[in-house]
C-alpha cells in the first residue's frame, strides 16, 4: 500500500481502537472521544488553555446531536487539524 493508503487505514484503525470500548462499536461516546483526543493529540492539547475544549469540541463535532461521534463526524474533525498541520509545516519551512 502507498503511504497515503496506510495513513487512511491508520486513521480507521485508531478510531476503532477507541470506538469498540463501550456501547455502539462504530461510534465514539464522550468518554471514548475524550480518551482518544487526550491520547492521540497530546501536543495539540498542550497548546489549548480552555478546560472545556474537549467537551465543546465533542458537541460541535456531534452534528446530529445523538451524543455519539460516528466515523464521518470524526473525519470532519480531522480536516481542520490536517490543514493546520499543513500550514504549520509551511510556516516552519519558511522560517528556516
From TrEMBL:
**Where are its TM segments located?**
none
GO annotation, biological process? endothelial cell migration
The GO molecular function terms of this record are: calcium ion binding; calcium-dependent protein binding; transition metal ion binding
Which CDD domains does this chain map to? Answer: S-100
Q: Is tRNA processing tagged as a keyword?
A: no
Q: Does the keyword Calcium apply?
A: yes
Q: Which UniProt keywords apply?
A: Calcium, Metal-binding, Repeat
Pfam families for this protein:
S_100
Q: Give a GO cellular-component term.
A: cytoplasm
Top-rank taxon: Eukaryota
Q: Where is the EF-hand domain?
A: 49-84
What SUPFAM superfamilies does the record point to? Answer: EF-hand
User: This chain belongs to which protein, by name?
Assistant: EF-hand domain-containing protein
Q: Which gene encodes it?
A: LOC105750368
Amino acid at each position: 500500500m502507498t503511504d497515503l493508503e496506510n495513513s487512511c487505514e491508520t486513521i480507521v484503525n485508531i478510531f476503532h481502537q477507541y470506538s469498540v470500548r463501550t456501547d455502539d462499536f462504530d461510534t465514539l461516546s464522550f468518554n471514548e472521544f475524550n480518551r482518544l483526543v487526550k491520547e492521540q493529540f497530546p501536543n495539540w492539547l498542550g497548546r489549548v488553555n480552555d478546560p472545556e475544549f474537549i467537551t465543546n469540541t465533542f458537541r460541535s463535532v456531534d452534528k446530529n446531536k445523538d451524543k455519539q461521534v460516528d466515523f464521518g463526524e470524526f473525519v470532519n474533525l480531522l480536516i481542520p487539524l490536517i490543514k493546520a498541520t499543513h500550514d504549520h509545516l509551511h510556516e516552519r519551512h519558511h522560517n528556516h
